[in-house]
């Protein structure tokens, strides 16, 4: 009987405890609600504040200014690093933040209010950016970022709608209106579709897309993007991204693999039949003993005192080259002159590469590489645009070095000239020697019909 009573007691106790148990709900998430001062400025007005900002002269905002915007892009895929993009009805701007995985806290589609007082406007690549005056590279420290950028309501993807563009050249008609906005280019093809990837393992990828009018724009992708190794799609589709600017040139930044969509290859459709590709040499000039300056011409802007030339064909120990110098009679002289290529017709060409060998010699403590430039202009034009030279010699000897591959794809479909632009002053006059100039390209494939190439805006002559 005692055993029966004990068992009964245990059963009753279990029922009592079971009756007392209940299911607990997870603590509710509180929807963020902004209750600070109302917005009293826009991105357009913010840009006006920074109208006089220079590369080394940031502007710290001292006024009580609040701006409302929506986050259109962040670092979720790894293709954007330590920044977000903000957009309102008047424009868009890049904001620097010294933090990784920002997307976990500030997703795309999040409406935010930014307290601008104490933040800064700085210039990078000739474009305005919002950040912090005391941050490394003007990046906003994370604590400061959270204090200045307040969320309002849950993030809503419907807050972010890209501008749909079927003609890439339209962006040139309103540079300030388009830059850093979220756009969607439709009816485009990748020039290297089905062949390359978005980016190599250890460098940025630069791949062109082309619309049905033959207009071209470059997509720049970080090797850290989680889609960097994806193959470029074949056929025709749409590409969405942030329409950025750098040093006067357009470049598109894709936010994720989902931004590249709807690519199809329909037999018998409107796709241009693939043509066999062939590598061709457009120009090759050694400046040898017989050819001299070849088909190149010389455009003198200023001749050095005591000399009637800057560029001339020369040689040393049977090594031939074109040489520019304004070191005359043991003294530096001011000068300026260009060695100009013949016209290159890039119609029906892609993967255009310029290479050359060169060396320079300095006669002063400073190298002044800014006095030795490579530039490009359209046929018949008088405005030159600088193109970077990847590799220079040491300046301490006469050893020639290869320039490295210089991509001219942004000029596909045009007729152009390039020039070696030499300048000197009475303080410094380098000697520059050029040889083995070569331009190659790929013909065939789907190279477009010669529309507008979205290229760097000329900065002067």
Automatic annotation (TrEMBL):
Keywords noted in UniProt: Signal
Residue ranges occupied by any DUF5689 domain in the UniProt entry: 39-260
Pfam families noted in UniProt: DUF5689 (PF18942)
PROSITE patterns hit by this protein: PROKAR_LIPOPROTEIN (PS51257)
Signal sequence interval, chain numbering: 1-18
Domain of life according to the entry: Bacteria
Protein's UniProt name: DUF5689 domain-containing protein
Organism: Bacteroides stercoris
